[in-house]
Amino acid sequence: MTEPAKILVIFGTRPEAIKLFPVVRALEADPRFTPVVCVSAQHRQMLDQVLEIAGIVPDHDLDLMRPDQTLDGLTAALLTELGRVMDVVQPARVIVQGDTATAMAGALAAYYRKLPVDHVEAGLRSGNIYHPWPEEVNRKIIGTIASLHFAPTEVSQAALLAENVDPARVHITGNTVIDALHWVTARIAAKPALAGGLAALEARFAGKRIIGVTSHRRENFGDGMENIAEAIRQIAARPDVAVIFPVHLNPNVRSVMNAALGGLDNVALIEPLDYPHFARLLSLAEIMLTDSGGVQEEAPALGKPVLVMRETTERPEGVTAGTARLVGTDVTRIVTEIFNLLDDKAAYEAMARAHNPFGDGQSARRIVELIGDEVGQ
Ligand code: UD1
Ligand code: UDP
């Protein structure tokens, strides 16, 4: 019998962990593969929150996060250290996800060793290399290197074909975030206490209309973040509204939000939530206001209108379906759009339709089958 193929799965941030744990689980369940998990720990605490809930113990933990890390310092360390792990593990293939520095450096280090790279969540493009920055270029680099491209939707498949990627190498698999969302929803249904930690906040804001907020994009640092904070301050001035905002650990986000919003009655600035508690927040919220990629996929799947604080998106599917809207980072625009949804029932109902163009929860299984076909096992 042939030896199981060793697959090196590399990730480092919260969203990569959420979107790759279903793939790790599917590889583990398949006798054709031996998954080897390497975390860069580009994020430390926010990564560990996911590892714990998903029950994943990495084989290699590079512990690379530094406070307020720079893109070049982080990328240099990632390239060297991920390369070193590849030399030790000697995998048959490497899996990376999305568009972070970890994913890009992982793909590049693999390419330097002529190892095939399989890209989960391939083909997302905004068409603007500064929105999101540096993710648009990271994913283009990975797209140039990848052996198999796992596009979540037809839109992302089309973007790859427009860049002359061999159509035979591009597969529509759905997005593994829906696998993760289904998994966490089932876990909470079986054990509600897993998401019970918001009870005090729920009691404090009983009868109020909850707006869930997340924000972290590098291109929004500076004026963008200041504007977002001011918009939230104006929104929370309404007595019928409460804002729940788990604040990203990036100091560029926290310093602005704490200074502008700390101590406001209707605003709860809280620590990053683990995935079950964030799923609970998604269910409590009437509207999500975010610049996150993953939240743009999860909120429409749950029928929650999502206002996206960006000028472009590589996830146009939600916008096309009418469940997501781009609102940029202009204070008046954000406040006007939120008030419109709060005050115009028809406008709200038009957006609040469960719509899930991102997958059926079977993406990880599909990805593992396709890798199996590729390695001929
Ligand atoms: C990174 C990714 C971004 C992704 C986001 C998800 C890059 C260039 N950016 O952005 O694509 O959308 O993660 O959240 O890959 N920090 C902590 N603890 C943590 C996590 C972060 O303290 O658990 C702080 C540290 O000071 C760290 C800083 O946040 O230096 C920035 O982290 P970094 O991963 O460089 O950038 P993000 O903005 O989180
Ligand atoms: N998320 C979480 N806790 C939080 C905020 C977000 O678990 O406090 C999850 C969210 O459900 C989504 C992912 O983190 O799956 C999005 O991560 P983030 O916004 O950091 O990155 P992006 O998706 O923009 O790359």
Instruction: Tell me the strand order in the biggest sheet.
Output: 3-2-1-4-5-6-7
Number of domains: 2
Q: End-to-end span in angstroms?
A: 10 Å
CATH topology of the largest domain: Rossmann fold
Q: Which term fits the overall shape?
A: globular
Tell me the name of the CATH class of the largest domain.
Alpha Beta
The helicity comes to 40-55%
**What are the segments in which pLDDT stays under 50 over at least 5 consecutive residues?**
none
The major sheet is characterized as: 7 strands, parallel
> What small molecules are bound in this structure?
uridine-diphosphate-N-acetylglucosamine, uridine-5'-diphosphate
Taking all Cα atoms into account, the compactness measure Rg is 20 Å
Beta-strand content bin: 15-25%
Q: What does this entry look like structurally?
A:
This protein is an alpha/beta fold. The protein folds into two domains: 5-175 and 360-375, Glycogen Phosphorylase B (Rossmann fold, 3-Layer(aba) Sandwich); 197-352, 3-Layer(aba) Sandwich (Rossmann fold), CATH 3.40.50. Helix content is 47%, strand content 15%. The chain has helices spanning 14-28, 45-54, 71-89, 101-112, 135-145, 154-162, 176-190, 199-204, 223-235, 251-261, 275-284, 293-301, 316-321, 331-343, 345-351, 363-375; strands at residues 5-11, 33-39, 60-61, 93-97, 117-120, 148-151, 170-172, 209-214, 241-246, 267-270, 287-290, 306-308, 324-326. The strands form two sheets. A seven-stranded parallel beta sheet has the order 3-2-1-4-5-6-7, sandwiched between helices. It has a six-stranded parallel beta sheet with strand order 10-9-8-11-12-13, sandwiched between helices. Helix 6 (154-162) links the parallel strand 6 (148-151) and strand 7. Helix 1 (14-28) runs parallel beside helix 2 (45-54), helix 1 packs across helix 7 (176-190) and helix 9 packs parallel to helix 10 (251-261). The protein is globular. It starts with a strand and ends with a helix. The mean pLDDT is 97. The site of uridine-diphosphate-N-acetylglucosamine (UD1) has 25 residues, from helix 1, helix 2 and helix 3.
